[in-house]
Amino acid sequence: MQNAFHTAEAYKRQQIMTASPEMLILMLYNGAVKFINEGIKHIEEKDCIKSNKALIRAQNIMIELMSSLKMEYDISKQLYPLYNYIYRILIEGNMKNDKEKLEEAKGLILQFRDTWGQAMKKAQQEKSDA
Questions:
Q1: pTM confidence score
Q2: Domain boundaries in the chain?
Q3: What's the number of CA atoms in the CB half-sphere (13 Å) around residue 112?
Q4: Given pLDDT bands bounded at 50, 70 and 90, which one contains residue 16?
Q5: How far apart are CA 103 and CA 56, in angstroms?
Q6: Which of 15-18's residues contact partners 24+ apart within 8 Å by CB, and which partners?
Q7: pLDDT tens digits for range 83-112
Q8: CATH: 3.10.20.310, 3.20.20.140, 1.20.120.340, 1.10.10.10. Which one for 21-122?
Q9: Distances (CA, A) of 33 to 21, 29, 55, 111
């Protein structure tokens, strides 16, 4: 069992190390959704310690997304306050065990993820057409 865990962890590390910057952003969005879902599940189970740990991981992903923005681009200037808003409602949802706030954050992240995925597909299509 232990060996399978280490193999899975090594595979996950390799995936991250070889991913394109675009894929890393997608992975961050997916990770944030995963940890929000875990946090909500643990809130429902009345396990505040586990929910806090999961939601802090989602908050850290939002910090990573904010810090990865290149502020010389207009889109980054538009994304930063939106990411910051998500970060703040994650904190509030975590502090108050407010599933509604967490669902709001998750919904916004899912919109970003889906839009990002569509942009990646379009860019790949344009690249292969060229």
A1: 0.87
A2: 21-122
A3: 25
A4: low
A5: 15
A6: none
A7: 999 999 999 999 999 999 999 999 999 999
A8: 1.20.120.340
A9: 19, 6, 10, 11
